[in-house]
Amino acid sequence: MSESTEKKMVRLRSSDGEVFEVEESVAKVAKTLQDMLEEDCADAVIPITCVRAPILTKVIDYCKDQVMISSSSSTTNNPNERTEQERKAWGQKFMEGVDSSTLCELLVASNFLNIEGLLNLGVDKMVSMIQGKYPQEIRDMFNVVNDFTPEEEEEIRNQNAWAFERDPYYKKRSSSK
Amino acid sequence: MESAAFDRLSDDMGRNILSKLPLKTLVRFMSVSDRWKDAAREIVEERKEKMKGLVLVNFVSIDFPGMYIPRYAYVSQNSGGGAGSDVEGMLDLMEYVPVKHFTVRDVCNGLLLCVGISTTAVDENGDPVANFYVCNPVTRQWAVLPESPPASSRDLVDVLAFDPTVSHYKVLRWYGSEATRQGQQQYVEADVYCSSSGTWSRRRVPLQRRKKNITCPTRTTPSSTFLKGFVFRLADPNAVIAVDVSGDRIPSAHVIDLPFQKNDPPVHRCLAKWPVESLCCVDYNKTRIEMWVLEDFPAKTKWEMKRAVSVERLTAMMPMASVVKKKEKPLLPVTMMFRGRVRGEEEIVVVLEVPDGVACYNLRTSEVEGVYPLDYLRRKNIPFRDVIAYPFYPCLCSP
Q1: Complex ipTM over 0.95
Q2: Does A139 touch chain B (CB under 8 A)?
Q3: Which of A54, A100, A150, B381 could disulfide-pair with A174, CB 3.0 to 4.6 Å?
Q4: Mean pLDDT across the stretch B313-332?
Q5: pTM more than 0.90
């Protein structure tokens, strides 16, 4: 697995200027970084322009864990190899307490860095947060601005009345003003 | 940085998330913001595509004296099979139609014709009212039909004739044997509801030619189908009656002879659609299942046998063969499903009733695709008597 005892380190700089030093193998979990490193176009510090430090910390945590699993998977009877169930539980724990705006940033980061596993975890978390919510709850959760006119919104609701029944958050904007 | 976190996501990612949401949330998402409206709508459309290949199976069991409570199952190439009342989008009519009980009476081009007992409306005696409902399970839109005239006989079939290109539909309550004979002239009698006029009317349509002892007995198999503006119904002995329902009037009823000789009642027979727009009579005669096809009706009235499958061979292919052989009513064909083309060849699946559920036999590959045992029914200890199956071709038309 490792031909040299000296582990090669890579430095990453977040959008807000913080520099993280990680092992090359950890950075390579991100396909985007792997490509850069293999083509040798990575300089001393790789700028990750669209990811803030707290998000990058979380991403690196994820990558470290992946390296820990895969480093021992080449040997037989790997004690670190997880069953489907364990993987699920781990993923849930990893995403525990992540709020909606962090989650969105995490999704953008894992998309940019091309980390499929993390992206899937984020999507699943997102789906569980949105499921069963009413439009206003979704807007509040993600700071989405309602850019419909009251008439437009009314129309969509009327066309699909079954989906909006007993919506406790809905007030006709025209009548509330 | 703080604003519109969700809007930072790329279109692809947004779609990825939306595609995993349940239908109801997805429809709500259409009114969250303009940016996501079309994406959400597109996925609703895709969901519709997925419902393709679904066969709605009506298991008639007797839960209450004198009343059938059907159970529903689905058999689809996308999601396998199952049965129960908890299949998303498909079988939860009661979630959005205000009925206590309902039975599906017919399925046509994406719409269901149901009879439901209203949760709110009552008659002058305070009894709940039963009405016809026409529903679209993809969009969950529904319409209730005005009260139908009192049935002149219990011997009837209810048929939904919906042509998506015209987007109006008709409902026929087609009476059976007694009504077809009146002196020298033979008639077909039906109450017809027309969605464009919103009214019911009783029609009596003369048969185009006489046929001795012709009757339309009520069967437990799908004995009617709608295509090319005609409603077809199986008749005895060995005939099909066709009425043209495309116009305001029903001009006359065609009598089409089936290519069978004997006058005995058939062992088991059903009508289905054969691609493209042809009528198929699936006939089970203990040794073989034969598919007879009538193309280009009404210009032609000649049947051609397209396929035949030996019952013995079919039984041997069944994974539950031992179970099947023990019963005396094995492998009855109940409907047929057209799934599109594979390498230029039509993919047609015959749905068979087997003692524990339903099975699908693929005519193109000549293989049994799957046997769907009805665990739900077994678990709840619900015996079922008859299986009535309808292929479901989803659409977004509103009733």
Answers
A1: no
A2: yes
A3: A150
A4: 66
A5: no
Residues in chain A: 177
Establish how many alpha carbons lie within 13 A of residue B95's alpha carbon, considering only the half-sphere containing its beta carbon: 20
pLDDT by residue (tens digit) across B70-105?
555 555 555 445 444 334 344 567 767 888 777 788
The span from the CA of B266 to the CA of B127, in Å, is: 40
Q: Tokens 């002058």 belong to which residue? A: B124
Share of chain B above pLDDT 90, in %: 21
Nearest Cα to Cα of residue A107 among B39, B15, B40, B10 = B10
| Test the A interface: residue of B20, B32, B140 with most A CBs within 10 Å | B32
Determine the distance in angstroms separating the CA of A149 from the nearest CA of chain B, rounded to an integer.
10
3-state secondary structure of B230: strand
How far is CA B210 from its chain centroid? 30
Q: What is the token pair recorded at A141?
A: 């959760």
Residues paired with residue B111 on neighbouring β-strands, in sequence order: B108
> Based on C-alpha coordinates, what's the Rg of chain A?
22
Looking at CA atoms only, how far is residue B130 from chain A in angstroms? 21
SS (H, E, C) B255-321: EEECCCCCCCCCCEEEEEEECCCEEEEEEECCCEEEEEEECCCCCCCCEEEEEEEEHHHHHHHCCCH
CB contact under 8 A, B17 and A153: no
What crossing angle do the helices spanning A84-95 and A116-130 adopt, rounded to 10°? 70
The pair of three-digit structure tokens given for residue B235, joined into one six-digit string: 């008749």
Phi, psi of A106 (to 5 degrees): -65, -40
Q: Which residues in chain A touch residue B28, judged by CB atoms under 8 angstroms apart?
A: 133-135, 138, 163-164
Residue bearing tokens 């724990």: A93
